[in-house]
Amino acid sequence: MDAQTGVLHELEPVVASNLDRHLSMAREWFPHDYVPWSRGRDFAFLDGEDWQPEDSPLDPVAKVAMTVNLLTEDNLPSYHREIATRFSRDGAWGTWVGQWTAEEGRHSIALRDYLVVTRGVDPVALERLRMAHTVAGYDSGDKTPLAAMAYVSFQELATRVSHRNTGRVSGCPIADQLLARVAADENLHMVFYRNLMAAALDIAPDAAMMAIRDEVVNFAMPGMGMAGFAQNAITIAKAGIYDLRVHHDDVVQPVLRFWRIFERTDFGPEGERAREELAQFLDVVDERARFYEEKRQRQHAEAAS
Fold first, then answer.
1. Most CB within 10 Å of its CB: which of 66, 90, 94, 243?
2. What is the DSSP code (8-state) at residue 44?
């Protein structure tokens, strides 16, 4: 049994207790409840009218953000493979993998139904994007189980923040309510992984710390490979939905504080070096976020003058 497998084995009771906690807190909900079906009408294939840009009730930025969020959720088969491979399909780990997958599946169902029924985006373009993105799939490479655990601790929170902020700028109370519901799921998923990583830090401090450093330094959202992601990310960032400041302040720092990364005294030389490198990287991110904030303020001031 290698060291990583040993950590997974030691974490099994923690997985079981956190799974019980999750099941006691997760609330059953139904995607169809969040879709205004009365707004729906047939498309041309059924003698109705196909989508036109003026059909959309959404703010243009919200259209971009909701499309990116939905396409990200669409890659669930790949994500299931990732966590089932990294963790296990046996025991408490396996039960969690199934529960997580089933809960995540509701997100794409609800978001797509909302967008199609309300004609929020072009359904033909959306389906073509889904096909391309899902065919390409998602592959995180050769992440160790600890690296995967560290990554999802941040990624689930990043997804929660992105969904929640998208709802707030959508201009639609129903979309806001739907995305708040999705965000609540993502928050519970983040708590599960965050708690496991906290236990992993106690079991294998140096290995866990190095995994955390690597995942923060190399962090990328799982939707990065989709068509047009870079340009869409700029649009989303300019709107303040998800930018460097949000990532640093609302995603990375809260999780690191929970783990007491900069207060721990149980790291060996490798862990200490990883912590120092993480601190240096976060300083760079903070400075870069400040640069973009000041740039945005100048642009707003020039536009107002």
1. 66
2. G
Segment 131-163, tens digit of pLDDT: 999 999 988 888 899 999 999 999 999 999 999
* Closest CA relative to residue 123, chosen from 39, 63, 212, 183: 63
- Helix and strand numbers (H, E) in the chain are 12, 0
- Rounded CA separation 205/265 (Å): 10
pLDDT tens string 246-284:
999 999 999 999 999 999 999 999 999 999 999 999 999
Are 176 and 170 in contact by the 8 Å Cβ rule? The answer is: yes
Per-residue tokens: 149:
């655990």
CA distance 132 to 129: 5
Q: Which residues of 122-147 are buried (b: 16+ CB within 10 A; e: fewer)?
A: bbeebeebbeebbeeebebeebbbbb
Amino acid sitting at position 107: H
DSSP-derived 3-state class of residue 130:
helix
* Spatial CB neighbours of 244, under 8 Å, sequence gap ≥ 6: 237, 285, 288, 289, 292
Secondary structure (3-state) at 231: helix
- Which amino acid belongs to residue 155? Q
- Rg of the Cα atoms in the chain: 21
User: What whole-number distance in Å separates Cα of residue 71 and Cα of residue 111?
Assistant: 10
Burial class of 207 by CB neighbour count within 10 A (0 to 12, 13 to 18, 19+): buried
